[in-house]
Amino acid sequence: MAEQAIAGRTRELLARHGLVLKKSLGQHFLTDPHILNKMIDAAELGSDAGVLEIGPGVGALTERLAEEAGSVAAVELDARLVPVLKELFLSSPHVHIIHGDAMKLDLGQVIHTCLGDTSRRSVVANLPYYATSPILMRLLEERLPLDRIVVMIQKEVAQRLMARPGTKDYGALTVAARYYAETEWVTRVPGHVFIPRPQVDSAVIRFHIRKQPAVEVADERLFFRVVRAAFGQRRKTLLNALAANLSEGKRKKEVNEWILEAGIDPKRRGETLTLEEFAGLADVLDRKARDLIRMAGK
Ligand SMILES: C[S@@+](CC[C@H](N)C(=O)[O-])C[C@H]1O[C@@H](n2cnc3c(N)ncnc32)[C@H](O)[C@@H]1O
């Protein structure tokens, strides 16, 4: 379908159902067929592929997914859109429309129930801006049975995901994404291809989910605590940031020794550390914590 046709159909559906879009739900509907095709190509679908779509809106992307994938499960929060979607996909039994909140639903169960007959699974979605990071983190942290994720997100978040250590965009989100997946920039998306036009530009990013995390750590929760502590106060040195956020009353001298033991200069800023350096540091802290527990038990 051409851009004008998608835009016309979107407006017609909204008018026919008397729907006023809610900015609070990130409702900006895509009208550009070239961008839709880029997302479809990036997802590398086929009849053996199952797709979880988050936020189908009035179904522009869902329709393309339905053409290219074996099964589609589309989770929409806005109850007003659910009957519109059900009507659109009435004669497509491989498309499952689910009314629910992607931040709360048991997504593993949705995948199992709706996409169980497919051999590889992806998420393909134009995510609502207000919930991009929490939804992405859920998809990655919960270790859902997914091979890849192709998402359209705010350009600034995409830049954070792709950032290199030492740059202003590099942060806890970058480290977390890289821990679970390889990230790849697909395309930039200008604001004028949406109804209504958002104030920001977007980008499409592809995640290849790793079978194993990028680095091995003894205690994953501690690893992410170290990462959050290091980025919590970006202007501080690693020593000061960790002493303030993580050391639970330990003197700075000890924290300094831990960082040195991990082979890192304590005067560096947390934002310059690579994934491997964060992992090494978390493992030193884990060893120290175990030593303390062992000594307390003697
Ligand atoms: C950016 S629009 C994308 C719409 C459509 N997929 C498209 O590309 O045109 C985001 C969609 O996510 C829905 N949404 C917002 N929060 C949600 C949530 N927590 N769970 C599921 N859907 C949500 C909105 O109602 C909206 O339909």
From TrEMBL:
Family: Belongs to the class I-like SAM-binding methyltransferase superfamily. rRNA adenine N(6)-methyltransferase family. RsmA subfamily.
GO cellular component terms listed in the entry, alphabetical order: cytosol
Highest taxon of source: Bacteria
Location(s) in or outside the cell: Cytoplasm
Catalysis: reaction(s): adenosine(1518)/adenosine(1519) in 16S rRNA + 4 S-adenosyl-L-methionine = N(6)-dimethyladenosine(1518)/N(6)-dimethyladenosine(1519) in 16S rRNA + 4 S-adenosyl-L-homocysteine + 4 H(+)
Matches recorded under InterPro entries: KsgA/Erm, rRNA_Ade_diMease-like_C, rRNA_Ade_Mease_Trfase_CS, rRNA_Ade_methylase_Trfase_N, rRNA_adenine_dimethylase, SAM-dependent_MTases_sf
Matches recorded under NCBIfam families: ksgA
Protein's job: Specifically dimethylates two adjacent adenosines (A1518 and A1519) in the loop of a conserved hairpin near the 3'-end of 16S rRNA in the 30S particle. May play a critical role in biogenesis of 30S subunits.
EC number: 2.1.1.182
Annotated positions binding S-adenosyl-L-methionine: H28, L30, G55, E76, D101, N126
Keywords annotated in UniProt: Cytoplasm, Methyltransferase, RNA-binding, rRNA processing, S-adenosyl-L-methionine, Transferase
Protein name: Ribosomal RNA small subunit methyltransferase A
PANTHER family (alphabetical): DIMETHYLADENOSINE TRANSFERASE, DIMETHYLADENOSINE TRANSFERASE-RELATED
